[in-house]
Amino acid sequence: MLLPDYHIHTARCGHASGGMKEYVEQALTLGLKEIGFADHVPMYWLAEGDRDPELAMPECDLADYVAEIGKLRGLYPDITIRLGIEADYIPGYEEKLRRILERYRFDYVLGSVHYVDGWGFDNPAYIQRYETCDLDELYFRYFKLVRQAAQSRLFDIMAHPDLVKKFGFKPRCNLQVLYDETARVFAEAGVCVEINTAGLRVPAGEIYPAEGFLRACRNNGVPVTTGSDAHLPNQVGHQFDSALDLLTRVGYIKVALFNARKKILQNYEQNRSRNGYTGCF
Ligand code: ZN
Ligand code: FE
Ligand code: FE
Ligand code: ZN
Protein backbone atom coordinates (compact mmCIF):
# COMPACT_ATOMS: atom_id res chain seq x y z
CA MET A 1 0.00 0.00 0.00
CA LEU A 2 1.29 3.35 -1.09
CA LEU A 3 -0.57 5.83 1.09
CA PRO A 4 0.96 6.81 4.44
CA ASP A 5 -1.01 6.31 7.64
CA TYR A 6 -0.39 9.51 9.61
CA HIS A 7 -3.03 9.06 12.30
CA ILE A 8 -2.13 6.29 14.73
CA HIS A 9 -2.82 6.38 18.48
CA THR A 10 -1.10 4.53 21.31
CA ALA A 11 -2.27 3.01 24.59
CA ARG A 12 -0.93 6.11 26.36
CA CYS A 13 -4.15 7.99 25.57
CA GLY A 14 -6.14 5.63 27.82
CA HIS A 15 -8.65 4.54 25.15
CA ALA A 16 -6.45 2.72 22.61
CA SER A 17 -4.80 -0.65 23.04
CA GLY A 18 -1.84 -2.63 21.82
CA GLY A 19 1.87 -1.95 21.98
CA MET A 20 3.46 0.54 19.61
CA LYS A 21 5.42 -2.29 17.99
CA GLU A 22 2.17 -4.04 17.09
CA TYR A 23 1.01 -0.95 15.18
CA VAL A 24 4.29 -0.81 13.27
CA GLU A 25 4.17 -4.53 12.54
CA GLN A 26 0.65 -4.26 11.19
CA ALA A 27 1.83 -1.46 8.89
CA LEU A 28 4.69 -3.68 7.69
CA THR A 29 2.28 -6.55 7.08
CA LEU A 30 0.17 -4.27 4.91
CA GLY A 31 3.26 -3.08 3.05
CA LEU A 32 2.96 0.56 4.13
CA LYS A 33 6.09 2.58 3.45
CA GLU A 34 5.44 5.40 5.87
CA ILE A 35 3.40 5.85 9.04
CA GLY A 36 3.16 8.41 11.80
CA PHE A 37 2.00 8.21 15.37
CA ALA A 38 -0.32 11.04 16.32
CA ASP A 39 -1.47 10.43 19.85
CA HIS A 40 -3.70 12.90 21.68
CA VAL A 41 -1.86 15.85 23.19
CA PRO A 42 -2.22 16.19 27.00
CA MET A 43 -5.38 18.15 27.90
CA TYR A 44 -3.40 21.37 28.23
CA TRP A 45 -6.44 23.64 28.59
CA LEU A 46 -7.55 22.02 31.85
CA ALA A 47 -6.03 22.05 35.32
CA GLU A 48 -3.98 18.90 35.98
CA GLY A 49 -6.63 17.41 38.29
CA ASP A 50 -9.48 17.90 35.78
CA ARG A 51 -7.79 15.96 32.98
CA ASP A 52 -9.55 12.75 31.99
CA PRO A 53 -6.98 9.90 31.88
CA GLU A 54 -9.19 8.09 29.34
CA LEU A 55 -9.04 10.93 26.82
CA ALA A 56 -5.34 11.79 26.56
CA MET A 57 -1.92 11.01 28.01
CA PRO A 58 -0.78 12.93 31.09
CA GLU A 59 1.79 15.64 30.40
CA CYS A 60 4.51 13.61 32.12
CA ASP A 61 4.16 10.90 29.43
CA LEU A 62 4.88 13.14 26.47
CA ALA A 63 8.67 12.79 26.67
CA ASP A 64 8.37 8.98 26.79
CA TYR A 65 6.05 9.01 23.79
CA VAL A 66 8.60 10.99 21.79
CA ALA A 67 11.49 8.79 22.98
CA GLU A 68 9.68 5.56 22.15
CA ILE A 69 9.13 6.65 18.57
CA GLY A 70 12.85 7.33 18.32
CA LYS A 71 13.53 3.77 19.49
CA LEU A 72 11.03 2.29 17.03
CA ARG A 73 12.86 4.00 14.19
CA GLY A 74 15.99 2.10 15.13
CA LEU A 75 14.11 -1.20 15.41
CA TYR A 76 12.27 -0.90 12.09
CA PRO A 77 14.56 0.61 9.46
CA ASP A 78 12.34 -0.67 6.60
CA ILE A 79 9.52 1.75 7.30
CA THR A 80 9.55 5.50 7.84
CA ILE A 81 8.04 6.31 11.23
CA ARG A 82 7.05 9.93 11.78
CA LEU A 83 6.58 11.73 15.07
CA GLY A 84 3.20 13.40 14.97
CA ILE A 85 0.66 14.52 17.52
CA GLU A 86 -3.09 15.17 17.46
CA ALA A 87 -3.74 18.46 19.19
CA ASP A 88 -7.14 19.80 20.16
CA TYR A 89 -7.94 23.35 19.16
CA ILE A 90 -9.32 25.24 22.14
CA PRO A 91 -9.83 28.99 21.50
CA GLY A 92 -8.04 31.13 24.04
CA TYR A 93 -5.37 28.52 24.77
CA GLU A 94 -3.30 28.93 21.62
CA GLU A 95 -0.14 30.09 23.39
CA LYS A 96 -0.26 27.23 25.85
CA LEU A 97 -0.42 24.74 23.01
CA ARG A 98 2.30 26.53 21.08
CA ARG A 99 4.67 26.14 24.02
CA ILE A 100 3.99 22.38 24.28
CA LEU A 101 4.50 21.87 20.54
CA GLU A 102 7.80 23.76 20.62
CA ARG A 103 9.30 21.33 23.09
CA TYR A 104 9.78 18.45 20.63
CA ARG A 105 10.80 17.95 17.06
CA PHE A 106 7.43 16.88 15.69
CA ASP A 107 7.20 15.95 12.04
CA TYR A 108 3.63 17.24 11.88
CA VAL A 109 0.77 18.40 14.08
CA LEU A 110 -2.81 17.31 13.41
CA GLY A 111 -5.34 19.92 14.44
CA SER A 112 -8.65 18.60 15.76
CA VAL A 113 -11.89 20.12 16.94
CA HIS A 114 -13.46 17.70 19.43
CA TYR A 115 -15.28 20.34 21.53
CA VAL A 116 -17.88 22.92 20.62
CA ASP A 117 -18.43 25.36 23.46
CA GLY A 118 -17.15 22.81 25.96
CA TRP A 119 -19.29 19.92 24.66
CA GLY A 120 -17.30 16.86 23.62
CA PHE A 121 -19.70 16.27 20.74
CA ASP A 122 -17.83 13.20 19.41
CA ASN A 123 -17.81 11.43 22.78
CA PRO A 124 -20.52 8.73 23.00
CA ALA A 125 -20.89 9.58 26.71
CA TYR A 126 -22.47 12.94 25.77
CA ILE A 127 -24.50 11.85 22.75
CA GLN A 128 -27.86 12.63 24.40
CA ARG A 129 -27.17 16.31 23.90
CA TYR A 130 -27.91 15.90 20.18
CA GLU A 131 -31.59 15.45 21.07
CA THR A 132 -31.89 19.03 22.23
CA CYS A 133 -29.26 20.83 20.20
CA ASP A 134 -29.94 22.86 17.06
CA LEU A 135 -28.02 20.94 14.40
CA ASP A 136 -27.71 23.89 12.03
CA GLU A 137 -26.22 25.94 14.83
CA LEU A 138 -23.90 23.09 15.85
CA TYR A 139 -22.56 22.66 12.30
CA PHE A 140 -22.13 26.42 11.91
CA ARG A 141 -20.21 26.64 15.20
CA TYR A 142 -18.15 23.54 14.44
CA PHE A 143 -16.98 24.70 11.01
CA LYS A 144 -16.23 28.14 12.37
CA LEU A 145 -13.92 26.53 14.95
CA VAL A 146 -12.26 24.39 12.28
CA ARG A 147 -11.53 27.55 10.26
CA GLN A 148 -10.23 29.33 13.34
CA ALA A 149 -8.00 26.32 14.06
CA ALA A 150 -6.56 26.45 10.54
CA GLN A 151 -5.93 30.19 10.88
CA SER A 152 -4.14 29.75 14.22
CA ARG A 153 -1.08 28.43 12.33
CA LEU A 154 -0.61 25.87 15.09
CA PHE A 155 -1.38 22.91 12.84
CA ASP A 156 -0.05 21.35 9.64
CA ILE A 157 -3.04 19.13 8.91
CA MET A 158 -6.72 19.49 9.77
CA ALA A 159 -7.77 16.07 11.10
CA HIS A 160 -11.21 14.53 10.39
CA PRO A 161 -12.40 17.97 9.24
CA ASP A 162 -16.12 17.17 9.39
CA LEU A 163 -16.04 15.09 12.58
CA VAL A 164 -19.35 16.73 13.55
CA LYS A 165 -21.13 14.18 11.32
CA LYS A 166 -19.80 11.26 13.41
CA PHE A 167 -23.11 10.06 14.86
CA GLY A 168 -25.06 10.67 11.68
CA PHE A 169 -27.08 13.69 12.83
CA LYS A 170 -27.61 15.85 9.77
CA PRO A 171 -28.49 19.54 9.68
CA ARG A 172 -30.90 21.15 7.21
CA CYS A 173 -28.50 23.88 6.11
CA ASN A 174 -26.57 23.75 2.84
CA LEU A 175 -23.39 21.95 3.81
CA GLN A 176 -21.60 22.75 0.56
CA VAL A 177 -21.58 26.43 1.54
CA LEU A 178 -19.76 25.53 4.78
CA TYR A 179 -17.39 23.21 2.89
CA ASP A 180 -16.50 25.84 0.30
CA GLU A 181 -15.87 28.55 2.87
CA THR A 182 -13.77 26.22 5.03
CA ALA A 183 -11.72 24.90 2.10
CA ARG A 184 -10.91 28.50 1.08
CA VAL A 185 -9.63 29.21 4.58
CA PHE A 186 -7.55 26.00 4.56
CA ALA A 187 -5.91 27.15 1.34
CA GLU A 188 -5.19 30.64 2.70
CA ALA A 189 -3.79 29.23 5.93
CA GLY A 190 -1.57 26.73 4.09
CA VAL A 191 -2.84 23.66 5.96
CA CYS A 192 -3.45 20.19 4.57
CA VAL A 193 -6.69 18.29 4.91
CA GLU A 194 -6.74 14.76 6.30
CA ILE A 195 -8.58 11.90 4.65
CA ASN A 196 -9.51 9.87 7.72
CA THR A 197 -11.12 6.46 7.33
CA ALA A 198 -12.41 6.30 10.94
CA GLY A 199 -15.67 7.78 9.64
CA LEU A 200 -16.36 4.41 8.02
CA ARG A 201 -16.37 2.76 11.47
CA VAL A 202 -18.98 5.03 13.09
CA PRO A 203 -22.66 5.78 12.35
CA ALA A 204 -21.70 8.43 9.77
CA GLY A 205 -20.49 5.52 7.60
CA GLU A 206 -18.34 7.67 5.35
CA ILE A 207 -14.79 8.95 5.25
CA TYR A 208 -13.95 12.32 6.80
CA PRO A 209 -14.24 14.64 4.90
CA ALA A 210 -17.40 14.20 2.82
CA GLU A 211 -16.71 14.03 -0.90
CA GLY A 212 -18.15 17.51 -1.50
CA PHE A 213 -15.80 18.92 1.12
CA LEU A 214 -12.79 17.15 -0.38
CA ARG A 215 -13.74 18.44 -3.84
CA ALA A 216 -13.81 21.97 -2.44
CA CYS A 217 -10.34 21.37 -0.97
CA ARG A 218 -9.11 20.07 -4.31
CA ASN A 219 -10.56 23.07 -6.14
CA ASN A 220 -8.75 25.39 -3.74
CA GLY A 221 -5.43 23.53 -4.04
CA VAL A 222 -5.38 22.20 -0.47
CA PRO A 223 -2.97 19.21 -0.14
CA VAL A 224 -4.09 15.96 1.50
CA THR A 225 -2.73 13.43 3.96
CA THR A 226 -4.22 10.05 4.85
CA GLY A 227 -4.88 8.41 8.20
CA SER A 228 -6.82 5.59 9.81
CA ASP A 229 -7.17 7.07 13.32
CA ALA A 230 -6.19 3.60 14.55
CA HIS A 231 -6.87 2.95 18.22
CA LEU A 232 -6.14 -0.78 17.74
CA PRO A 233 -3.22 -2.33 15.83
CA ASN A 234 -5.53 -4.00 13.31
CA GLN A 235 -7.01 -0.61 12.39
CA VAL A 236 -3.76 0.60 10.83
CA GLY A 237 -4.40 1.29 7.16
CA HIS A 238 -8.08 0.56 7.74
CA GLN A 239 -10.06 0.72 4.48
CA PHE A 240 -7.32 2.60 2.67
CA ASP A 241 -8.71 1.18 -0.57
CA SER A 242 -11.71 3.45 -0.02
CA ALA A 243 -9.42 6.38 0.72
CA LEU A 244 -7.57 5.68 -2.51
CA ASP A 245 -10.81 5.49 -4.49
CA LEU A 246 -11.95 8.80 -3.02
CA LEU A 247 -8.62 10.49 -3.76
CA THR A 248 -8.61 9.37 -7.37
CA ARG A 249 -12.30 10.19 -7.88
CA VAL A 250 -11.75 13.71 -6.63
CA GLY A 251 -8.60 14.08 -8.72
CA TYR A 252 -5.76 14.20 -6.25
CA ILE A 253 -2.56 12.76 -7.67
CA LYS A 254 -0.28 13.66 -4.75
CA VAL A 255 -0.27 13.21 -0.99
CA ALA A 256 1.67 15.36 1.46
CA LEU A 257 4.46 13.83 3.55
CA PHE A 258 6.03 15.63 6.49
CA ASN A 259 9.50 15.83 7.98
CA ALA A 260 10.18 18.27 10.83
CA ARG A 261 6.99 20.16 9.92
CA LYS A 262 8.13 20.63 6.32
CA LYS A 263 5.77 19.37 3.68
CA ILE A 264 6.76 17.37 0.60
CA LEU A 265 4.16 16.50 -2.02
CA GLN A 266 4.57 13.04 -3.42
CA ASN A 267 2.90 11.42 -6.37
CA TYR A 268 1.35 8.17 -5.20
CA GLU A 269 0.29 7.14 -8.69
CA GLN A 270 3.76 5.74 -9.54
CA ASN A 271 3.35 2.93 -7.07
CA ARG A 272 -0.18 2.32 -8.14
CA SER A 273 0.51 1.81 -11.83
CA ARG A 274 3.01 -0.90 -10.87
CA ASN A 275 0.05 -2.80 -9.46
CA GLY A 276 -1.67 -2.73 -12.81
CA TYR A 277 -3.85 0.31 -12.25
CA THR A 278 -4.44 2.43 -15.31
CA GLY A 279 -6.22 5.48 -13.98
CA CYS A 280 -7.08 8.61 -15.92
CA PHE A 281 -4.71 11.28 -14.59
ZN1 ZN B 1 -8.60 8.82 20.46
FE1 FE C 1 -9.71 13.10 16.91
FE1 FE D 1 -7.28 10.45 16.55
ZN1 ZN E 1 -8.69 11.74 15.63
Give a description of the structure.
- By secondary structure, this protein is α/β, with parallel strands linked by helices.
- The chain has one domain: TIM Barrel (Alpha-Beta Barrel), CATH 3.20.20.140.
- It contains 8 helices and 9 strands.
- The protein has a 7-stranded parallel beta sheet with strand order 1-2-3-4-5-6-7. It has a two-stranded antiparallel ribbon with strand order 8-9.
- Helix 4 links the parallel strand 4 and strand 5.
- Helix 4 runs parallel beside helix 5 and helix 5 packs across helix 6.
- The longest helix has 17 residues.
- The radius of gyration is 18 Å and the shape is globular.
- The two termini are 19 Å apart.
- 40% of the residues are buried.
- The C terminus is likely disordered.
- Bound molecules: zinc ion (2 copies) and fe (iii) ion (2 copies).
- The site of one zinc ion has 5 residues, from loops.
Which tags fit this structure?
281 residues; TIM Barrel; binds fe (iii) ion
In short:
With 281 residues, the protein is an alpha/beta fold.
Bound molecules: zinc ion, fe (iii) ion
The backbone outline, from C-alpha atoms, is globular
Helix content: 25-40%
What proportion of the residues form beta strands (DSSP E)?
Answer: 15-25%
Q: How many helical elements?
A: 8
Average pLDDT over all residues? 95
**Number of DSSP strand runs:** 9
- CATH names the topology as TIM Barrel
CATH level 1 name: Alpha Beta
Give a short account of the largest sheet.
7 strands, parallel
> Order of helices and strands, N to C?
EHEHEHEHEHEHEHEEH
Structural domains: how many: 1
Terminal Cα span: 19 Å
- CATH architecture verdict: Alpha-Beta Barrel
Structural class, judged by helices and strands? alpha/beta
CATH homology-level superfamily: Metal-dependent hydrolases
Cα-atom Rg, whole angstroms? 18 Å
Strand order, main sheet: write it out: 1-2-3-4-5-6-7
